[in-house]
Amino acid sequence: MCIIFFKFDPHPVSKNAYRFILAANRDEFYHRPAKLADFWGSNNEVLSGLDMEEGKEGGTWLGISMRGKLGALTNYLQPQQNREARGRGKLVSHFLTADMDSLSYLKKVSAEGHLYNGFNLIAADLSTTKGDVVCYYGNRGDPEPIVLTPGTYGLSNALLETPWRKLCFGKQLFMDVVEQSQTLPKDAFVAKLLDVLSNEEAQLPDPAIEDQGQEYVRPILNKYAAVCVRGSNYGTRTNTIILVDADGQVTFTERSMLDKDPSCWETTTHEFMLQS
């Protein structure tokens, strides 16, 4: 289970406003190996964490490039997985390094969507000069990707904006904090967004998750029904905040669990200017 909240406004009225704000949780087995977020690629132009699971090395769930390409992935909750399906993590890393705009890339992916287990993919081109474009495709939804209109969105392990209770609850928390973005120092704003991602209040009952997950999810629904998932060997391992201001300054903050220990975390921040 994972969760992403984001808001974008390519032309904010105030010079102090952020034109793109994202807050995301990666939920995964604690033992699954991964690298913490850092720059990589031929010219260190991509910033992301990396999956290091054997056979899936180099995939990622969320990243951004110096050129303003941003990709984010969640899996679609389905009781039965096709073990012969293609790995989904490369969908983000391929976009971050491809010489292809977001909509064209998602159209290419949608033509092969049946080859994967269920997923949702956000692809964005963040350009200070041309304007920001954010697109979405889910291979369990409409056959064609869509260009999103400016606004606030929530995505978990169903299609974009599916009203799971934890998604609606977390999105409201996110919007409440975003309303304070122009009055808070950046560090305080990031800290409040991390608080949203750390909320462990289970939002029950939730028939929508039960219906989609069926017998697979019902025995452990109380663990999955919060923004922050906390199980004995599976749960929220990474919080990520991405801010892009009107000038193209990117602030990427990652809070990561260390040593498979839910009480031990490390926070790092990377900052750079988008290359026009």
Describe the model.
The chain has 276 residues and is α+β, with helices and mostly antiparallel strands. The protein has one domain (3-273): Penicillin V Acylase, Chain A, CATH 3.60.60.10. The protein is 20% helix and 35% strand. It is built from six helices and 13 strands. It has helices at residues 90-97, 102-111, 165-178, 186-197, 207-213, 221-224, and strands at 3-8, 18-29, 34-40, 46-51, 62-65, 69-75, 119-125, 133-138, 146-147, 151-155, 234-245, 249-258, 261-273. The strands form two sheets. The chain has a seven-stranded antiparallel sheet, covered by helices on one side. It has a six-stranded antiparallel sheet with strand order 10-1-2-11-12-13, with helices on one face. Helix 3 packs antiparallel against helix 4. The radius of gyration is 17 Å and the shape is globular.
Summarize the structure.
This protein is of the alpha+beta class and 276 residues long. Helix content is 20%, strand content 35%. Helix 3 runs antiparallel to helix 4.
Q: How many E-type strands?
A: 13
How far do the termini sit from each other? Answer: 35 Å
Task: Outline the biggest β-sheet.
Answer: 7 strands, antiparallel
- SS content category: alpha+beta
Low-pLDDT ranges: none
Strand order of the largest sheet: 3-4-5-6-7-8-9
Q: What is the averaged pLDDT score?
A: 93
The portion of residues forming beta strands comes to 35-45%
CATH structural class: Alpha Beta
Q: Mind telling me the CATH superfamily name?
A: Penicillin V Acylase, Chain A
Helix-strand sequence: EEEEEEHHEEEEHHHHEEE
What is the domain total for the residues?
Answer: 1
Helix fraction, binned, reads 10-25%
How many helices?
Answer: 6
The coarse overall form would be: globular
Instruction: Tell me the quaternary state.
Output: single chain
Protein name: Transport and Golgi organization protein 2 homolog isoform X1
GO cellular component, one term: mitochondrion
Organism: Dipodomys ordii
InterPro entries: TANGO2
